[in-house]
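User: Structure please.
Assistant: Input sequence and predicted structure:
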Amino acid sequence: MAILGFLDKEHTIAAPGFNRWLVPPAALAIHLCIGMAYGFSVFWLPLSKAVGITEPVACPAGMSFAARVFATTCDWKISMLGWMYTLFFVFLGLAAWLFGAWLEHAGPRKAGVVSALCWCGGLVISALGIHTHQIWLMWLGSGVIGGIGLGLGYISPVSTLIKWFPDWRGMATGMAIMGFGGGAMIGAPLADRLMRHFATPSSVGVWESFLALAAIYAVFMLAGAMTYRVPPAGWKPAGWTPPSGAARTMMTQRHVHAGRVWGIPQFWLVWGVLFLNVSAGIGILGMASPLLQEVFGGRLIGIDAGFNALDAAQKGQVAAVAAGFTGLLSLFNIIGRFAWASLSDYIGRKATYFIFLGLGFVLYASVPSLAHGGRLALFAGVVCIILSMYGGAFATVPAYLADLFGTQMVGAIHGRLLTAWSAAGVLGPILINYLREYQIAGGVPRAHAYDLTMYLLAGLVMAGIVLNALIGPVADKYFMTDAELAAERNLAQERDSAAAAGAHARGGRGGALATCPAATAFAWAAVGIPLLLGMWITLQKAAVLFK
């Protein structure tokens, strides 16, 4: 439609003088919104008493699962609500895979707008589901439709940022993907305030909060999408020259078509490395709170007693400490996404992954001895470093892919690689949770039930070290020829710098955004202030861990 032509990629080619530092806050604006997927658990307890308001109304004992899905007179179990997480990350991976190539041709602005419509529209559908007490509408709205929005929003800036920052690939993608880890830090406290504001004697305030969040997120996500610009083909920063000689052995200047990566060994090696690292990270992330409570027990509140020996009030105090610990892990997850990805620009992506995996092996294996030795502060520090590397792996891998396969279709290739995340999200928690339950059922004390798990996680990252060592430059036969690259760029509506300059001279795009320092400062403030507030709130909650 002509009226929507401004969304086309050819209309997002940057004007001469455009400030590339406007692109990272645009990406952050989207990632901070969709990152609320990590914080959805804040809704589970209120939704579990949406009918009863003060106390949950249990469904009849003989009611089938299908009947519970459509029931309007009894409350949902948290286990039913928890399916939202599975839907989120399954559809994130599927959308990133299926629509990655389309994104390269359509451009980041169109993908960002579609992401906003899916994510915010999903929240509206979920609000209707809560209002009518139909959980299938929540699964469809936020889980399926919202999950597609997650996938598109997650990968929408990757290719663009790498092309704008060929000199700082890791840092640029780290800034954006940091937002996905930080979305819950902002969204969860905001959602809590909204629910308390909208709560009435006849409503727990969740469906109203969903509508408010949809409106807020729509503003930020659409603003971010409209700020996206792509560089003209062949653009590079002033004074920057591509690395040559030994420095470029793992950083190609050629390009692989996304459709070919399934048959390239290096793709599957990177897939395996990410899968193993994420499986281990998800394992410890998912068990962090119960691990801390059951291993340290009363020592968390100054009482020399095991977890089972505590009364209800003491367990509540221990849970509060564990909540602060979980928040601290989220903060290190975010910091790691930026810090490790930025470090990879100096030491290389392969070396960075060797640190993730090698140091991870030592840290995972050390957790049991630190736990049984009662070294709480050192234990907490080790787990925080592990979570920083978990986040860092996500932020570093787009640059790793660009180094190996080129930048032309890195967004689509990244989308295919995220199937490793989907697989790890299923395997990791299942493997870890069932092993813990098996240990406890076999009579192993709760404080020791995690030892075997930690050694298993150490084994996973050790296998990742082997796969990472096997990664080398991609063979020439897999790269596009000059003719194939020209055809792909034509499909992607790309022009070279000279053609783009001519188009802008005839009435181009970009306006004041191209050169205005105030616009750049405002963009960074719009995303930076909420992010800093979220970090401050998290640090306040985590402080209880060290009292």
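The chain has two domains: 21-57+66-232+519-547, 250-494.
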